[in-house]
Amino acid sequence: MDHHPLKLRHPAARAGTAATVALLLLLSLLVPASAGHAAATATLDYPVNQAFNGSSTFLDKSADVSGVANLTQGAIAVRFRSTSTAVAKSFFSASHTADDSSNLSFSLNGGSVYFENRENGAYATQVTSTGGPYNDGVWHTAILTVGSEGTRLYVDGTVRATHPSTRFFANVRDLNGMWIGRNVDAQGSQWHYSGDLDYVRVYGTALSAGEISDLSMRIDYTIPFLDLKDDTRRQVLTDRQAGQYLGHPDTVLLDDGRTMFAVYPMGHGTGQIILKRSDDGGRTWTGRLPTPASWATSKETPTLYKVVKPNGTTRLLLVSGLPASPGGFKTAYSDDSGRSWSEFTHHFADAGFSGFVAHATLVRLKKADGSWDFRYMGIFHDGGYNNWKTYLTFDASGNAVWSTPTRLLAAHNTIEKYAGLCEIEIIRSPNGRQLALLARAQNKRTNAMVAFSNDEGNTWTEPREMQGALMGERHAATYDPATGRLVITFRDIIRNSVSNTGAWVAGDWVAWVGTYDDLVNSREGQYRVRLLEDFTPSVKSGDTGYAGNVVLPDGTFVLTSYGYFDPADTSYPYIMTVRFSLKELDALNGSFDPNASYTLTNRASGKVMEVAVAAPGDGGDAVQWADNGGLHQKWSIVPVGDGYHRIVNRRSGRALDVASNSTADGADVIQWTYTGGANQQWRITRVGTYFTITNRNSGRALDLDGTITDNGADVVQRTATGATRQQWSLS
Q1: Neighbouring C-beta atoms of residue 579, cutoff 10 Å
Q2: CATH number of the domain at 225-588, out of 2.120.10.10, 1.10.3720.10, 2.40.50.180, 3.30.930.10?
Q3: Fold of the domain built from segment(s) 600-730
Q4: In the predicted model, is pLDDT for residue 6 greater than 70?
Q5: What is the spatial distance between Cα 450 and Cα 467, in angstroms, rounded to a whole number?
Q6: Closest to 230 measured CA to CA, from 682, 622, 666, 603
Q7: Which 3 state secondary structure label does DSSP give 22?
Q8: Which of 156, 237, 283, 705 is 20 to 30 Å from the Cα of 52, by its Cα?
Q9: What per-residue confidence (pLDDT) applies to 15?
């Protein structure tokens, strides 16, 4: 299955695109709609995070051996990094130290991953991985799983060896020793691991393919794929100019929850900065607003932030870097909600700082007691992939003060340069006590990376790869106010090979939906979304994806990016806005929140289904009307089993019903107190980005009667034909 169905960039390859997309959409409906795969619980979980010298260092875990000695099936997962060419370098082992050659051992043999299970020299299992070599100095995940189907050895999510043996720990009698970083037998011989171990985990049950995918570092992804590229209801043209490159926007939402500003350059990361405003949450945008003269001197992609000053007022802050001499970065601001703006102020000119994508993030910090500080950390990078942090504070007069930049990841310089980390996004954990950074991996040797800080960004864990589901550039993350999930937008990057760093292509403007916990535990997340398809006319394609990402108080995400979105005219990119809620995307993914309120809008008429205000009781007629936001136009969708749902009016609490249990075409649809009858149960089936709603009793679909554009047109059931009058959106 091609998890990147839309990267068929050249005309000759596009013939298969529609079929591939259709297959993916169908398959996505078959994937459970939970937030990623259910995480397996480890029986033993060792967060090792340690280097081993190959001769003497190890961790003795013999005290825990009784917890696994009787396991007849299960799994072992190890994340390792090594350059050792020696054999029998054991990640993890368990032995009966009084017996000769009675052990279970998971090791690195030269460049291969090796597992053995033997009792008194008799091998129950021996497997050696194909592929590799895996002693190449980069992180790998090795997983051995043993179940009723035998033994399977995975490296980085791919099956690399199998064996029919179903033996696990219980095969070795009288286990009395267990170690991380060495193996021991009765002759006194020891085999020590050489390299780094991130973790070792032992599971009491065999792992499923989905669980293995979550634990492994994939360059592709297996979570569902949703496609909004043709859903024009969600799309707003923000700006387009013939003969002019418009790109790299950023946006900010004001405190009123509806007013937005967007900034972007007239050129590829350089040029006059354009300013626009939306007064209705991104539904419409003004023309280009007047800007200070110095904004024409911008040399980088501008970024826009909202900053709270010590006096309690809100400042809108514009930042633009200078990658070439004299370097540093420039800032401008508005203290009157965007009605007027300052000229640029230049910071750190001729100070040796090349300001690329300044500031890729600006995160508010906390004090030691957990309260908010009036201190902000901004991040930019230079051409050598040094990432720099500078702190914004305010003096007693309320003037902004920027600290001299210092390295953000100096302690991890090797991986920072190896991966080419840059364009860092920083988000705070839901509990407020941790920061996570998401970094573009420019060199394409690795996936995009993540690291964590528990001291407000002073120190960071070593950056590690994220799943392929998050492989991309210029991540921008925002939490959903209703569910606490993350929406992260970025430019998709498709790596077609781990070893060939040139085998990649830039993709479309996409978003990832998942949880902060998914980032911490290296899970794939819930689903991916294509927001718009990009048709950049170049070999690597994908000049898109730098985006503003804000969410309105009602949970509507407003994302604004640039790209070559018009396949008929790929001369210059332009700016588009896409709006959605996770409630809507969850519905497309086959999951409905029984506590949410849905509006059902007919595709053909654009009007919504309601129960007439004058008929709130049993028998009240279902009709359509122009949307006015009333509760009589809102519905709950509650699962009843077997793929069916009851659809309940939010005003009356009564269920959508087919009158008199009729199975006839044209039978009236009404509301009635819920009795559990099949005539009150409905199957909701996705058709692209719309749905057909079919009655369980009759097998017929919701439809409209009479002149379907009229207010008051009756809602009835009819044999499904696929007509647009039988298709409904859920929002």
Answers
A1: 18
A2: 2.120.10.10
A3: Trefoil (Acidic Fibroblast Growth Factor, subunit A) (2.80.10)
A4: no
A5: 10
A6: 603
A7: helix
A8: 156
A9: 29
The predicted pLDDT at position 88 comes to 82
Q: What is the 3-state composition of the chain as percent helix, strand, coil, each rounded to the nearest 5?
A: 10, 40, 45
Q: Answer whether residue 661 shows pLDDT above 50.
A: yes
Q: Which of 234, 260, 246 is nearest to 550 (CA)?
A: 260
Q: Say what the pTM is.
A: 0.81
Across 22-42, average pLDDT: 43
The bridge status of strand 504-514 relative to strand 486-495 is: antiparallel
The number of residues in the chain equals 731
Lowest mean pLDDT among 7-16, 172-181, 357-366, 417-426: 7-16
Amino acid 186: pLDDT: 60
Indicate the average pLDDT of the chain.
92
H/E stretch holding 671 reads strand 669-672
Calculate ∠ Cα 210-230-695, nearest 5°: 70
Write out the CATH class of domain 44-207: mainly beta
Which pair of structure tokens corresponds to residue 510? 């996409």
Nearest to 621 by CA among 673, 661, 656, 665: 656
Residue 190, pLDDT above cutoff 90 = no
State yes or no: pLDDT of 3 exceeds 50.
Answer: no
Asked if 142 contacts 130 with a C-beta cutoff of 8 angstroms, the reply is no
Amino acid present at 616 = P
Beta strands 635-641 and 644-649 are: antiparallel
Q: Which of 2-16, 253-267, 463-477, 708-722 has the lowest mean pLDDT?
A: 2-16
Q: Which two tokens stand for residue 267?
A: 């050129």
Q: What is the pLDDT of residues 693-702, one digit of tens each?
A: 999 999 999 9
d(CA 663, CA 59): 70
Spatial separation of the C-alpha atoms in residues 94 and 59, rounded to whole Å: 12
Q: What percent of the chain has pLDDT above 90? A: 85
Provide the residue ranges of all domains of the chain, joining segments of one domain with +. 44-207, 225-588, 600-730
**H-state helical runs in 153-270:** 209-215
Q: Are 630 and 615 in contact (CB under 8 A)?
A: no
What is the DSSP code string of 202-229? EESSPPPHHHHHHHS--SS--S-EEE-T
| d(C-alpha 186, C-alpha 190), whole Å | 10
- Look up residue 383 and give its two tokens: 């051409």
Greater model confidence, 75 or 219: 75
